[in-house]
TrEMBL record:
Transmembrane segments: none annotated. This is NADH-ubiquinone oxidoreductase 12 kDa subunit. Its main location: mitochondrion. It comes from the Eukaryota. GO terms for cellular component: mitochondrial inner membrane. It is a peripheral membrane protein. The keyword Membrane applies.
Length: 76
């Protein structure tokens, strides 16, 4: 019985770590899109509203969807 509890806790911890890692990957993807958006704004100058709109829309969408969600405690 103790082995099954330990295995369940290990599986739950692994699942949480995987989820947290995936959240961080998505957050870093959003950061890369932000960097590209800044480059586009600098390169395009006064035309950045027209030429970088697709990148700005993608960045806004990623900000809404790709938030890092962590866990504070282990549920027993």
């Amino acid at each position: 019985m103790a082995d099954t509890v330990v295995e369940l806790l290990k599986a739950k911890i692994q699942e949480r770590e995987d989820h947290l890692r995936e959240s961080w990957v998505k957050a870093m993807e959003a950061r890369l899109v932000q960097d590209e958006l800044v480059k586009c704004h600098r390169y395009e100058g006064v035309n950045h509203l027209e030429n970088c709109k697709w990148l700005a829309d993608k960045y806004i969408q990623m900000l809404q969807e790709n938030r890092v969600k962590g866990y504070k405690k282990i549920e027993v």
